[in-house]
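To: structure subgroup
Subject: Chain for Friday's discussion

All,

I'm putting the inputs and outputs inline so they're searchable in the archive.
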Amino acid sequence: MSLDLAGVSTLVLISAGYAEDDQVVTRHAAVLDAAVRDGIGHVVYTSLTTAGDHLGFALAHRATERLVRASGLPWTILRNGLYAELFGGLLM
């Protein structure tokens, strides 16, 4: 798979969906590698409140935030709250 981000000035990286953490982090790393290669001007990542430090299931967010910071690109991390469907799933 090849990602072409040439000409993109701002990349909004939304967490890559449901999968094992290592798969999600690998997807995010591939996008960030392409962003660096293609000279993206700014990366915006949708993470969790406080990087999910208090949540055992937020490993992929914490790892991706480290990758974003290490990329050398200007970045913004959005601190989304938990979504209602999460609570519904936990209650079931």
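Points worth raising on Friday:
The CA atoms of residues 43 and 75 lie 5 Å apart.
The longest helix spans residues 21-37.

D.
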